[in-house]
Design brief:
The chain is α/β, with parallel strands linked by helices and 292 residues long. 29% of the residues lie in helices and 18% in strands. Helix 1 packs across helix 10. It starts with a strand and ends with a helix.
Length: 292
């Protein structure tokens, strides 16, 4: 059978994309951000509903076989620890609300490994009655992509099932292979200021010729492109920011995928998304489950 999924806190639809590539049918997706919803509508034919999930009724949705929850990681991340905002939030309760009122055969939750530091959240996700739970952490994006990005993946199913661990399906892309041959990118003056040491920390510079991979794609790149740079001798100081398309490729997004809004909107949507091959691995394992 082809399982049908509804997605919650779905952003620009990178989880949707990975699941669909694995053979999962997408029923509906729910996202509060208008631009991210517009991006989804540019790329998918499923119903995209712009709404605040903290106010949406569970009864007001189409039936599905599984749910995928990808609520924001902002208050669970290492960056939040640095800024004193690692407080968690109550968005997980709305995942629980959906599962309690309309249980599905399976559900998936994706977030940063830092969420494991919140035992109340983990208890809810791993001890929901009637489900067998498989936790994988960290799931490393560099299994498939030239990007350092670790995630926590929780897969819960009604029946016990032996899920396979993440593994590469072919050679990993290199940083050099995802770079544009003729990059068109503006370099704000603050980039040179960071390079010159005028900020608290210097940029992370990746060298494709040395076999480096990029650091984690962050949504904050939409506001500050000086934190992550790539070596390129054709530019002043020998470095430059990543283009939007390069940033998307670091997340496994194909070039055919279109982003609504400005370049800043695109960087934000990419940084907030799930690495596509990671989502595809989840989807393949769930397809196996539903057909076993």
């Amino acid at each position: 059978m082809t399982p049908r999924a509804n997605l919650y806190f779905s952003g620009a639809g990178l989880m949707d994309l990975g699941l669909s590539l694995a053979g999962v049918e997408i029923g509906e997706s729910y996202e509060i951000d208008e631009t991210a919803c517009a991006t989804q509508r540019l790329n998918f034919s499923h119903r995209v509903r712009q709404c605040d999930l903290t106010k949406k009724l569970v009864a007001d949705e189409e039936p599905c076989d599984l749910r995928a929850f990808t609520w924001p990681c902002t208050r669970y991340s290492n960056a939040a620890e640095l800024h004193g905002t690692r407080t968690g939030d109550d968005l997980y309760l709305h995942a629980l609300r959906h599962m309690a009122l309309k249980p599905t055969e399976a559900f998936v939750a994706e977030n940063v490994p830092g969420m494991k530091k919140f035992p109340v959240v983990m208890e809810m996700l791993t001890r929901l009655p009637g489900y067998y739970v498989h936790v994988v952490c960290p799931v490393a994006a560099d299994t498939w992509l030239p990007q350092v990005r670790d995630r926590l993946i929780i897969i819960a199913t009604r029946r016990f099932f032996l899920f396979r661990e993440p593994e590469a399906t072919g050679p990993r892309a290199t940083l050099a292979s995802i770079l544009d041959p003729d990059p068109q990118v503006k370099i704000p003056e603050y980039v040179r200021s960071r390079i010159a040491g005028k900020y608290r920390d210097k940029p992370i510079v990746s060298d494709p010729a040395a076999g480096d991979i990029a650091p984690t794609c962050v949504a904050h790149y939409s506001k500050d492109r000086s934190t992550r740079l790539v070596k390129d001798a054709r530019f002043p100081d020998g470095v430059r920011p990543y283009t939007v398309r390069e940033y998307a490729r670091l997340q496994g997004v194909p070039d055919s995928f279109r982003f609504a809004g400005s370049d800043s909107d695109a960087y934000r949507q990419i940084g907030n998304g799930v690495a596509v091959p990671m989502a595809e691995w989840v989807g393949r394992e769930l397809v196996r489950y539903f057909n076993n």
